[in-house]
Amino acid sequence: MSLLTPTQPRSAHPGDGRIVLENVSWDYYLRTIAEFENSHVRVNYFRGRMELFMPGVKHERIKKAIARLLETYSLEQNIRISGLGSVTCHRDDVRAGLEPDECFYITTALPPLSPHTLEITAENRPDLAIEVDVFSSSVSRESIYATFGVPEIWRYDGQQVCPNVRRSDRTYELSVSSPQLPGLDMAVFSDFVNQAITGDSFDAAVAFKRWLHSQNKA
After folding, report:
1. I need a surface site. Which of 38, 89, 122, 175 has the fewest CB within 10 A?
2. pLDDT recorded at residue 124
3. Strand order in the sheet with 128-132
4. For the chain, give me the number of helices (H) and strands (E)?
5. 9 in a domain, yes or no?
6. pTM here?
7. Which residue segment(s) compose the domain that 117 sits in?
8. How far, in Å, CA of 101 to CA of 105, rounded?
């Protein structure tokens, strides 16, 4: 693999598998995501700053636990949800791109099947993105989501899943509930997520399913 060296490289962040590069051109970013296609390297880009992130086991376990329980909820409540995982998303006109930890379509139609990256438009952006904040990012992923028009981000801060809702000024505001899924008790959901992370995700999903059944009968 051969990559040009941008100006003013920054060293990797100790222990979290991140490398940040400054003054990176958009063309360089596009070449980079093409080089790393089908790899475990995630690439974020915003306003000339590019971050390469290699997620570890903890990060991947958390994001999959959240996604599994969300999908369990959608099936039990008969809510049509489609996921695209960590698909590479970018907008050429604003020079921004990232791979979400997980992303889902709820009211927006799922984009057509494509073997390549997803170029974001107002018609095909995800309704919900999931972000694991155990490690902080050096690139403003929230700003990228706001630019994409993603209406809601769920952040896991190490203890709970916190919905953040996009406002008209293109910033996100913390919310106690999810506008995309208003019937979901986020405090209870977070408890099951923590069970899945510290224990077995299958057992946590079964327990969550039983809890949902008990609530539906109430």
Report:
1. 38
2. 95
3. 82-83, 102-105, 128-132, 152-156, 161-166, 172-174
4. 5, 12
5. no
6. 0.88
7. 56-217
8. 14
Q: How confident is the model at residue 9 (pLDDT cuts 50, 70, 90)?
A: very low
58-100 pLDDT, tens per residue? 999 999 999 999 999 999 999 999 999 999 999 999 999 999 9
DSSP single-letter state for residue 110? P
User: What's the one-letter identity of residue 147?
Assistant: T
CATH code of the domain containing 157: 3.90.1570.10
Closest to 104 in 3D by CA, of 71, 58, 69: 71
- Residues 21/50, Cβ–Cβ less than 8 Å: yes
Segment 21-42 shows an average pLDDT of: 93
Looking at residue 117, the DSSP 8-state letter turns out to be -
DSSP state of 2: -
Q: Report yes or no: 130 and 46 within 8 Å, Cβ to Cβ.
A: no
pLDDT-based confidence at residue 116 (cuts at 50, 70, 90): confident
Q: Nearest-5° angle of CA 81, CA 83, CA 85? A: 160
Count of domains for the chain: 1
